[in-house]
Design brief:
This protein has a single domain, classed as Pnp Oxidase, Chain A. The chain is built from one helix and ten strands. Strand 7 and strand 8 form a beta hairpin.
Amino acid sequence: MKDTIEQFYFQVALNDCIISFQEVTGLVEETQVIEYKTGNSPIFSTVKMPGIRKYGNITFKKGIVVKGNSLNPLINAVQLNQIERKPITISLLDQKGQTTMHWILLNAFPVKITVQEDESATRSTPLAVSSLEIAHDGIEIAAP
């Protein structure tokens, strides 16, 4: 029995539009470790406990299509502390287009957009790729 998804892509719902991406990276949640030693402990070592959670920025990548870049209005809306922070839903779709998993980014906003050339060994010509980096305050995993 196969449990892995061999062909997949991502759909991202942001600002009332859905954009498909080939790659999503940075879905990371990390809990800082706090070490302390109680004064009355007979053991000469520290005790570890969970501390503050940290979340990395998420990066979305997609090829640029001839009709233009659908990410430009999103990044153009960013001004000094004037962007409306919204949840962003990332859906992992299988080869049939069925949703297999959802992640929800809380209080998300764009921080960086990049357009570059992607020279992959599997292609004979380079592909123009745009990437969008999003900052957020947390990740929720939701059932499809």
